[in-house]
Amino acid sequence: NGYHMRNLVAGYRIFGERRYLDLAVAYADHLLELQSPRGYWGTGYGKIYLADTGSALGLFIVLHKHVDKERQRKYFDAIGRYVKAIEADGLINPSGAIGTGWRTDKSGNITGPYADEYTISSSLTGAEIFTWMFHRTKEDKYRRVAYRALRWILGTMRSDGVIPYVLAGEGGD
């Protein structure tokens, strides 16, 4: 739903329809309530999946300039908790790629981080979220993660210009 809400923000910017922005803000407020104490969000299908989370957090980024200072602080704090969890849990690969998220067993219990290289997580979390954090804080550690993630993504590009869907541990390409 993060993508849909981001589209509503774009609709607000293009058409000036305040109701689009209000709906996106209400959804973002709901997302804030769903963040786990560890810093992640569940995806609704049993595991923590960084690609979907990156999509949703992109909403906080596009809303940031349209909301009051209190919401801006809440968005920043939520993204900051998410980023710290990724760093602490070893989901940033030496290659620069960002991991998939967390593994679960057949019963849906979280068993540990799944740090495999993944194109979507690397794009939405590595490049987008860490770039935004760098622009907000000017802390070089965020710039380095964003740069390395983007360099890894572009390094996967084939000679025909296609960036493949890489999820190596799952055999995805």
Could you describe the 3D structure shown?
It contains six helices and two strands. It has helices spanning 2-15, 18-34, 50-63, 69-88, 119-137, 140-155; strands spanning 101-104, 110-114. Strands 1-2 form a two-stranded antiparallel sheet. A hairpin with a 5-residue loop joins strand 1 (101-104) and strand 2 (110-114). Helix 2 crosses helix 3 (50-63) and helix 5 runs antiparallel to helix 6 (140-155).
Write the layout of secondary structure elements.
Layout: H1 2-15, H2 18-34, H3 50-63, H4 69-88, E1 101-104, E2 110-114, H5 119-137, H6 140-155
Antiparallel strand pairs: 1-2
Shape: globular
Radius of gyration: 16 Å
> How many β strands by DSSP?
2
Rounded average pLDDT:
90
Q: How much helix, percentage-wise, in residues?
A: 55-70%
Element order, helices and strands?
HHHHEEHH
State the end-to-end CA separation. 25 Å
Instruction: Record the strand order, biggest sheet.
Output: 1-2
Query: Which structural class is indicated by helix and strand composition?
Result: mainly alpha
Ranges where pLDDT stays below 50 over 5 or more residues in a row are: none
Question: What is the number of helical segments per DSSP (H or I, 4+ residues)?
Answer: 6
Proportion of residues in β-strands: 5-15%
How would you characterize the largest beta sheet?
2 strands, antiparallel
